[in-house]
C-alpha cells in the first residue's frame, strides 16, 4: 500500500486536493491510500510515502515541519503546495521533489504525481533511514530483522560491509513503512523479514541461520496465518 498524505491548514483546499489526487489516471484505490491533515500534529506518526505539504500552515512553517520530518523520514517524497515561490531555495535543504502552485493544480498535478510515483516505486527495494546522523539506504532483501532497545532500533543485515545499523526511527514507524514488504511484528521489540524466517511457533521463532527470536503469544495466531499465507505466495 502506497500512503499519500496532504497537509494543509485550509481544510476545504485539503479535501479538494485529495479528490483531485483520487481522480488522477495514475491513482489506484486498490494499492494507494490518500488522506489529509490540517496541521503538523501527528504527522510524524502517519505512514507517508508521498507528502503534499503546504508551506504556510498558519501557526506553523512548512519548511520547519519538513526539516523535523526529515530527521526520521528521509525517504518521504515531498511536494510543497504553495503560492510562495520565494521559498524555493530553502526547499532544497529538505530535498523537496517539486513545488506545486495552488493555482496550477489542474495543469501540473498529473505530471508531478506520475513523477513522484516513479520515485516511490524505485525506493521500494530500499529503506531510507537516518543512522548515526547520516542518511542511509538499507537494502530490504538484506535486512534480516530489527530489534528495539529503548530509543534505538538495531537493524541486522545479511552480509555486506554494514551488517548492523542503529536508528532512532521507532519500531512502530518501521513496521508501518515495511508493512507491504514481507515483514512481521513477532513481538513488541522485534520485526522480522519473513524471507529469513525458518520456523514460527508459539514458544518462539527461529531464523534460517539459527538465530532465535521471541514471539508474542497474543499475536501468535494472526502472525502464523500471515506467515503461512506469505509462504504460499512465494511458492505460487
Which features would summarize this protein structure in a list?
single chain; alpha/beta; OB fold (Dihydrolipoamide Acetyltransferase, E2P); 5-stranded parallel beta sheet; 6 helices
Structural summary, described in words:
Strands 2-1-3-6-7 form a five-stranded parallel beta sheet, with helices on one face. The chain has six helices and 17 strands. It is elongated and about 60 Å long. α3 links the parallel β6 (77-82) and β7 (98-101). The chain has helices at 11-22, 62-70, 88-93, 105-122, 171-177, 220-235, and strands at 2-7, 32-37, 50-54, 56-57, 60-61, 77-82, 98-101, 126-131, 134-139, 143-149, 152-157, 164-167, 183-187, 190-193, 197-201, 204-207, 212-213. It has two domains: 2-125, Rossmann fold; 132-235, Beta Barrel (OB fold (Dihydrolipoamide Acetyltransferase, E2P)), CATH 2.40.50. It is of the alpha/beta class and 236 residues long. The modification 4-aspartylphosphate is found at residue 54. Keywords: DNA-binding, Phosphoprotein. It comes from Candidatus Gemmiger excrementigallinarum.
Amino acid at each position: 500500500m502506497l500512503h499519500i498524505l496532504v497537509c494543509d491548514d485550509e481544510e476545504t483546499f485539503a479535501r479538494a486536493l485529495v479528490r483531485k489526487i483520487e481522480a488522477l489516471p495514475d491513482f489506484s484505490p486498490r494499492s494507494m491510500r490518500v488522506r489529509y491533515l490540517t496541521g503538523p500534529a501527528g504527522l510524524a506518526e502517519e505512514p507517508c510515502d508521498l507528502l503534499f505539504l503546504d508551506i504556510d500552515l498558519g501557526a506553523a512553517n512548512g519548511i520547519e515541519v519538513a526539516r523535523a520530518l526529515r530527521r526520521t523520514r528521509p525517504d518521504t517524497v515531498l511536494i510543497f503546495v504553495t503560492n510562495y515561490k520565494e521559498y524555493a531555495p530553502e526547499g532544497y535543504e529538505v530535498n523537496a521533489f517539486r513545488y506545486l502552485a495552488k493555482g496550477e493544480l489542474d495543469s501540473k498535478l498529473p505530471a508531478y504525481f506520475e513523477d513522484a510515483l516513479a520515485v516511490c516505486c524505485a525506493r521500494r527495494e530500499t529503506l531510507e533511514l537516518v543512522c548515526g546522523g547520516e542518511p542511509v539506504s538499507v537494502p530490504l532483501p538484506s535486512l534480516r530483522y530489527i530489534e528495539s532497545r529503548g530509543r534505538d532500533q538495531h537493524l541486522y543485515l545479511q552480509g555486506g560491509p554494514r551488517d548492523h545499523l542503529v536508528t532512532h526511527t521507532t519500531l512502530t514507524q518501521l513496521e508501518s513503512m515495511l508493512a507491504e514488504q514481507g515483514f512481521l511484528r513477532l513481538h513488541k521489540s522485534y520485526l522480522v523479514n519473513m524471507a529469513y524466517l525458518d520456523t514460527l511457533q508459539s514458544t518462539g521463532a527461529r531464523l534460517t541461520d539459527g538465530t532465535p527470536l521471541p514471539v508474542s503469544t497474543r499475536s501468535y495466531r494472526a502472525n502464523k496465518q500471515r506467515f503461512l499465507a506469505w509462504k504460499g505466495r512465494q511458492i505460487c
